[in-house]
Specification:
Elements lengths: L7 E10 L2 E11 L2 H10 L7 H26 L9 E3 L2 E6 L4 E2 L2 E2 L2 E5 L2 H8 L3 E3 L2 H6 L9 H8 L6 E6 L2 E7 L13 E2 L2 E2 L4 E7 L2 H10 L11 H4 L5 H7 L3 H4 L8 H4 L1 H13 L4 H23 L6 E5 L6 H10 L4 E4 L10 H14 L7 H4 L9 E3 L3
Parallel strand pairs: 3-8, 9-14, 14-15
Antiparallel strand pairs: 1-2, 4-7, 5-6, 8-16, 9-10, 10-13, 11-12
Helix pairs in contact: 2-3, 5-14, 6-11, 6-12, 8-12, 12-13
């Protein structure tokens, strides 16, 4: 998969036996600077062109297929030992609110990375395009990884929140569950009925931080490595208060967001406001980092049934020590861990999740969570392209 940061292809090779999930190999294959620039242009209505969308849909299919082949070669795992590929694709537009057609709101989303190219190049059956079926069933098409979060991290004794901090940050709330082999993400287990799994996008993760760093450095730097820049700055509370008034943050779940609300235009506007206040570059990045931390903490306090015992971090933002420190300071009651402690790299977790979703699809198991996406009913996600 490739996330909203559009910085490369994450490939995980996973062995699944029922509920047992083992990560055998993982690698991120970065996009070239030229390819990343082209993809980001597709995400902007002012620069996207139909012929480019068509072209790069097939280009990314080739890029994704090549990434699978390269990881197999690097890990020593034969390509013909892979039974199934799950591909999330590259999101270029996500519109969960949707304009109306014939009096009805039509939600829509578009991920590119042509799965027919992947199946043809690798000879392996490929499941892709997971989000539209949930939207067709009345959902927002996101977030989808909570199904996998439940499989991987639900616990009999601890209430947990799985917090991904990618370009966008999203949380999966996992209530205590007397999990057993037949247990599903919305079960009534031997401890009686329990609250449903809850998940939603909390707001921007790395997207605004990265966007400001690019603007400040005029493109020479893409992100704040380790949170070092933010650590040298001071948070401007007046600007932070204004940022926290964003209407998305007040919306109740189910909800999802993306580059459409917190992308380039938002970052350019924020950069202009920060310059008017004469903030230093370090203060700008510190304020953006505090914005992400605050949106996460505020979402927990406002929208979760209770604060979790543990927060399990994953995604690129978990490498940002300043961001993690800010989150912990705002949620001192919550123990922060990482997916690394459970045998799954924080960087690999999203790719592993789509392997689990693809496995469920091919098994004919519904793998959206209506309590999360707002769909009218459980459905089987994805489109299956046969292998050779």
């Amino acid at each position: 998969m490739s996330g909203t940061s559009a910085d490369g292809v994450d490939v995980a090779i996973v062995e699944i036996r029922g509920r047992k999930v083992d990560l055998l190999a993982f690698e991120t294959f970065p996009y070239s600077a030229a390819l990343r620039k082209s993809i980001l242009a597709l995400c902007n209505p002012e620069t996207a062109r139909l012929h480019d969308i068509c072209h790069y849909n097939h280009v990314l299919g080739e890029v994704f297929a090549e990434a699978v082949i390269r990881l197999c070669n690097k890990s020593g795992l034969p390509l013909d030992s892979i039974d199934l590929i799950g591909s999330h694709g590259q999101t270029i537009w996500h519109n969960p609110q949707g304009p109306k057609y014939d009096g009805e709101v039509i939600r829509s989303t578009l991920q590119i990375g042509e799965p027919c190219r992947i199946a043809q190049r690798t000879g392996i059956a490929t499941v892709a395009d997971f989000r539209p079926r949930d939207m067709a069933a009345g959902g927002e098409g996101a977030p989808l990884v909570p199904y996998a979060d439940y499989v991987l991290f639900s616990d009999r004794k601890a209430c947990r929140a799985v917090q991904n901090i990618g370009g966008i940050a999203n949380v999966t709330f996992l209530p205590v569950c007397g999990k057993h082999e037949a247990c599903s993400p919305s079960c009534s287990c031997e401890h009686g009925a329990h609250p449903e799994v809850l998940a939603f996008d909390t707001g921007p993760g790395n997207m605004v931080i990265d966007g400001l760093v690019r603007l400040i450095s005029k493109g020479r730097r893409q992100y704040d490595r380790g949170g070092a820049m933010a650590a040298k700055g001071a948070v401007n509370n007046d600007l932070l208060k204004e940022m926290l008034r964003h209407p998305f943050l007040r919306r109740k779940p189910p909800k999802s967001t993306g580059r459409e609300q917190f992308g380039e235009s938002y970052c350019e506007s924020l950069y202009g406001q920060a310059r008017k206040r004469k903030l230093s570059p370090e203060d700008m990045v510190a304020t953006a980092t505090a914005f992400t931390a605050s949106t996460i903490a505020n979402a927990y306090r406002k929208f979760l049934p209770t604060l979790p015992d543990e927060m399990i971090l994953c995604g690129g933002g978990s490498h940002n020590a300043t961001l993690v420190r800010m989150v912990q300071s705002q949620l001192p009651e919550v123990r922060i861990r990482s997916t690394d402690e459970f045998g799954i790299s924080v960087d690999a977790k999203e790719a592993v999740s789509f392997a689990i979703l693809a496995y469920a699809t091919i098994q004919g198991i519904s793998n959206n969570l209506p309590s999360v996406t707002g769909a009218d009913e459980p459905v089987i996600l994805g489109k299956i392209v046969p292998g050779v």
